Amino acid sequence: MPLPVRPRLLAAIKPSSFAPAAARNTPRILPASAHQHRNMSNKSEGEWRAVLSPEQFRVLRQKGTEPAGTGTYNKHKEEGVYSCAGCGTPLYKSTTKFDSGCGWPAFFDAIPGAVKRHDDSSYGMTRTEITCAACGGHLGHVFKGEGFPTPTDERHCVNSISLNFAKDK
């Protein structure tokens, strides 16, 4: 039985020097299921507070929202992969990011299996909440039918504080 790998360490693992040159120069994106070997949604509040900043904890674990236009990744344009700030699971590729003008990073699709959808009827409206499939961290909401010229006609409106970014090499 292999030893469990802590997801934050997973991002630091580099392909071995035995890998072909193409593999060493390409970021490795694991499917979300590779990160689900350990159910991190069972972490205690204290364990989450120990690994997240107070603002990350408020958004990821208490379903908060960062103020519009304040997030690091709203206007971010580098090519790479956005991952969960809580557990390191890859969530979105930069090729699915677009400028929606909403004040938060917007994506038209997630990496398959990385994001779960839940009905959210808070604040007197019905929305679709999106969470990290591996750790259950709150990412934001998904909206459909807004008319953006994207392949899915969806806008995943994601809090920057819920994300980390690794650029393509």
Automatic annotation (TrEMBL):
The keyword Zinc applies. The keyword Oxidoreductase applies. It catalyses: L-methionyl-[protein] + [thioredoxin]-disulfide + H2O = L-methionyl-(R)-S-oxide-[protein] + [thioredoxin]-dithiol. PROSITE patterns: MSRB. Pfam families: SelR. It comes from the Eukaryota. GO terms for molecular function: metal ion binding; peptide-methionine (R)-S-oxide reductase activity. Binds 1 zinc ion per subunit. Residues 45-168 form the MsrB domain. Its EC number is 1.8.4.12. Its cofactor is Zn(2+). Keywords: Metal-binding, Oxidoreductase, Zinc. GO terms for biological process: protein repair; response to oxidative stress. InterPro entries: Met_Sox_Rdtase_MsrB, Met_Sox_Rdtase_MsrB_dom, Mss4-like_sf. Belongs to the MsrB Met sulfoxide reductase family. This is Peptide-methionine (R)-S-oxide reductase. It comes from Phanerochaete sordida.
